[in-house]
Amino acid sequence: MSSYSPIGPVVGVIGAGQLARMSQPPAIALGVELRVLANNPEESAARVVVDTRIGDYRDLGDLREFARGCDVITFDHEHVPTEHIRALAANGYVVHPSADALVHAQDKAVMRERLTAIGAPCPAWARVRSVDDVTAFAGEHGWPVVLKAVRGGYDGRGVWVCRSPADVVEAFASGIELMAEAFVPFERELAVLVARSPHGQGVSYPVVETVQQDGICVEVIAPAPGLDQEQSAQAQRIALTIADQLGVTGLLAVEMFQTAGGLLVNELAMRPHNSGHWTIEGSTTSQFEQHLRAVLDLPLGTPKMTAQYVVMANLLGGDDPDVFKRYEHVLAHDPGIKLHFYGKEVRPGRKIGHVTALGSNLDEVRARARHAAVHLMTGEYV
């Protein structure tokens, strides 16, 4: 166990991925002591956070030991068992978001039931337990049908686009609980990041466009280009209403589909989110600082952008693991580009970092971010 002696409020983050890692700089500035629960000392945040504890987030005993001395507990991911979160709260620990809120980001069927009840726009959906259930759903809503893992899916994992009963059989072979959704012929994907404090203050960041490739976000454009003011305001209202109705404390990311018929809510995340990494340089208050403010019930910061356009491109590992040898070209070519590496071993397709570009010409900003990302990943020039 660490012998570290905190001098400010202690925020315990369960999980030691890149989200916890990127929370360290704003924690330092705020005078907040960050503590992380890591599976092993090689994890992303464990490499940079002094007060790192090693333990299993699935073990209630480890969670209780970790929580001792923390002013508030929050999360780097949604995988902590819901009953363990309730047990921590019952033991007197302050947890944000609460189990009652976080379950909507852990269980997609629970999320859909609650969003439907509060009138949030969603795709048609149903709980399904058999191929016949899915076939009946398709009879009402048409093929293809999207099957999703009720718990645990992310970055395209746990999602099956089924065009026939044969595809459904393959999805059920996974042996996990599934739900069905109608396939949405969307025009593009949007995301809204909002924050809400325990006493009910809320703020919304600008609506962004997220560009997906093979189920993984590769680019985020802030603000979403061409989105009219009315639809932007509607998206922000939907997200703030969800945060309020679900009792979210901290950050809430609401992923949406923009369709010819309007906006539909796709997914929720109750933590800092990939769609908000641009805020580190692109907003007066980054999403990481905002989450810390919110869970400590401090006044929230302004989400005002620092540039007219901000583009974030994810770095995905390729065949050559030595991305650092390509630093020189990227930094010399564009002194204004911002690089963020997550301290992760490079593997093909794995998110190992991101780059951010800011400016007043959207085409130029996108080109700069793409050039940096492609060169760092592959060594190629674009």
Number of continuous helical runs = 12
User: Over all CA atoms, what is the radius of gyration?
Assistant: 21 Å
Structural class: alpha+beta
Distance between the termini: 48 Å
Task: Describe the structure concisely for a colleague.
This protein has 12 helices and 17 strands.
What does this structure look like?
The protein is globular, with a radius of gyration of 21 Å. It has helices at residues 18-30, 60-67, 82-90, 99-106, 108-118, 131-141, 165-172, 229-246, 279-282, 287-295, 327-333, 362-378; strands at residues 10-14, 33-38, 51-54, 72-75, 125-128, 145-149, 159-162, 178-182, 188-196, 202-204, 208-213, 216-222, 250-259, 262-269, 309-316, 338-341, 351-359. Strands 9, 10, 11, 12, 13, 14, 15, 16 and 17 form a 9-stranded antiparallel β-sheet that branches. The model has no long low-confidence stretch (mean pLDDT 95). It has 382 residues and is of the alpha+beta class. The chain starts with 9 loop residues before the first strand and ends with a helix. It has 12 helices and 17 strands. Helix 3 runs antiparallel to helix 4 (99-106) and helix 4 crosses helix 5. The longest helix has 18 residues, at 229-246.
